[in-house]
Amino acid sequence: MARSRREFTPEYKDEAVKLVVTRPSAGVTLDDANQLIQHACLAAAELEIPMAFVVVDAAGHLVSSARMDGGRWFGFDIALGKAYTAAAFAEPTHIRAQKASALPQFTSALTAMSSGKYIPQDGGFPLIRDGMLFGGIGASGGIGEEDDAVLLPALAAIGYDHQ
After folding, report:
1. Which of 8, 9, 100, 156 is deepest in the core (most CB within 10 A)?
2. Using one digit for the tens of pLDDT, what is the confidence trace for 36-93?
3. Half-sphere exposure (CA, 13 Å, Cβ side) for 113?
């Protein structure tokens, strides 16, 4: 994991204190994110389904996205929610969907709390490699099983775990 180090010496009263700040990597790289989307687009094209894809880092922040020609304009928002949900819970969104069906009030509260980004539906996977969470990927455009189906080969191609 790449880390950046920055040293600085602030002055507190008359005493100098040396602090070392270490920041962990933000998660998934732009290169990995773009490769994931490229592989997912190829799989979606084989199914002849125009889709949208979003990759977020481990904190749920956008890293990369794409909407295929003919994809629905709101597909981006749905894919973002699925990627966000997968990263937030470090599990595939189809598992969140199963849990959500038993807890509708809690699901509504999470959706409201996340400003609508919590989407517990098929089509999202966490980006996990060697037990470390790097982010999440979401797809929208097909039925849930199709969204999952285009993401699985992308995860395998780039070396992320796929449950």
Report:
1. 100
2. 999 999 999 999 999 999 999 999 999 999 999 999 999 999 999 999 999 999 999 9
3. 8
CATH number assigned to the domain comprising residue 105: 3.30.450.150
Residue-by-residue DSSP string for 52-79: EEEEEETTS-EEEEEE-TT--TTHHHHH
Q: How many domains, the chain?
A: 1
Counts of helices then strands in the chain (DSSP H, E)? 5, 8
How buried is 134 (Cβ within 10 angstroms: 0-12 exposed, 13-18 middle, 19+ buried)? buried
Question: For tokens 């990927």, what's the residue?
Answer: 137
The parent domain of residue 45 ranges over 26-158
Neighbours of 128 (CB within 10 A): 21
